[in-house]
Amino acid sequence: MAEDRHLQQLLSRVALGDREAFKNLYGQTSAHLFGTALRILHTRTLAEEAVQDAYVQIWQRAGHYRSDKAQASTWMNAIVRYRALDLLRRNGRESSSEDLDEADFPFSTGEAARSDLQQDLDICLEELAARQRECIALAYVDGYSHHELSERMDTALGTVKSWIRRGLQQLKACLER
Amino acid sequence: MRLQSPAIRDALSAEYVLGTLRGQARVRFERYLSEDDQLIEQVNLWEGLLEGFSSRVRPVTAPPSVWRQIEHRLGFTSSRFKAAVPVAPVPGLRWWRGGWLGFGIVAMLALAVMFRPDGIVDGFNPDIQIALQNKQARTVWKIRADTQSDTLVVSAVRPIRLPEGRSLELWLLPKSGGPPISLGLMPTRMDNKYVATAKAALAEAAAFAVSLEPHGGSPTGAPTGPVLYVSEVGAS
Fold first, then answer.
1. A12 → closest Cβ in B48, B60, B223
2. Could B207 and A68 be called an inter-chain contact, meaning their C-beta atoms sit closer than 8 Å?
3. N or C: which end of chain A has fewer CB within 10 A?
4. B135 within 8 A of B97, measured Cβ to Cβ
5. Nearest-CA neighbor of B54 among A77, A165, A133, A52?
6. How many whole angstroms separate alpha carbon A99 and alpha carbon A93?
7. Is B95 at the interface with chain A, CB within 8 A?
């Protein structure tokens, strides 16, 4: 996504009802938000719905965005992720001919400028056990539930839950260092 | 109702952000969130902590129909700015709408805002007059601007009631597309006038906007809304 300072400026104009700024913001962020929704929802129609809903919310709630509390990209990501998770709850993870293969959406790697956030996170993830790390990434990026993780990892549900719970606390302790 | 235990608050916030808090538990948590600002802060903290994962997602261009649908749902027309109709009512606030009956371009950057007693401003020769009207089409504020001396005088024609602890802030939206520039607070008493003097090189105003802010104005330097009023200038 574009530089956050720039997104913040656009958001402050969107808060004042500037449609051109909104269109500009959409142009600079929608591919990332659509990619995010696709990873969670796996179907294009649902991902399109999530992105539409997200931008309607962004337009309506831009005035509530606080640049001293969060990065603009974080704020927008949260909106689309929560919307995608809502749609997941409503629709389930139904198989359909539209299903996208996971291989279509590899983690992006080797980017020249990785954000500090990502670097910090990667370092802290290294401190976790491999399966713990995998569970947390699958949950965040691909919208896996506890049950889905338990199946995928072929591990008891309770175990998966405690991996995640403890993994998150370890991550937090590491990231806040 | 409020979640009490700090450990549980933190754990639920984390799993809410991660996405593993599902079903009724998620719905319940969102209900807690709606009435617990500290819980929102906890969620914001986790959103920031886990943000690094977002850069692992490969961007995928959305089909053009998505943008068209968004425009359709928001009722966009060809005009750049949304109509001056409030998005949601704020209790205790009088609503007004109508036009800044502006003409020409008001080009000013007002960086210093001060009170003056009712009356004279030295060398002030307004060449632009704008009336802000309420929905009964009665003028609420008058704005007079002198583009020679880059001075702006805003006066309340009738008293304005605001919710406790809130202020109204006037913004200038530069044509350059840069961030809104605060022109200061709107007067709410009839015997008050705000006089703003430009200090910097002048930028052209694409529009003015008025937003409802915490007392004393936006804490962030950008509008935190809601926006009560937007008007495009230079349309004539």
1. B223
2. no
3. C
4. yes
5. A77
6. 10
7. no
Question: CA of A73 to nearest chain B CA: how many angstroms apart?
Answer: 9
Residues of A in contact with B223 (CB under 8 A): 12, 15-16, 63
| Strand duo B181-185 + B128-133: pairing | unpaired
Indicate the length of chain B as a whole number: 236
Give this complex's ipTM. Answer: 0.87
Token pair of B164 as six digits: 């406790």
* Beta carbons of B21 and B15 less than 8 angstroms apart: yes
**Contact (CB<8Å) B177/A15:** no
> CA angle at residue A115 from A109 to A120, to 5 degrees?
95
Q: How far is B198 from chain A (nearest CA, A)?
A: 21
Q: Which tens digit of pLDDT belongs to each residue from B80-108?
A: 554 443 333 333 333 222 222 222 222 22
Residues contacting residue B96 through CB under 8 Å, at least 6 positions apart: B132, B133, B134, B135, B140, B228, B229
Q: Are B84 and B97 in contact (CB under 8 A)?
A: yes
pLDDT tens across A113-152, in order? 456 777 888 889 988 999 999 999 999 999 999 999 999 9
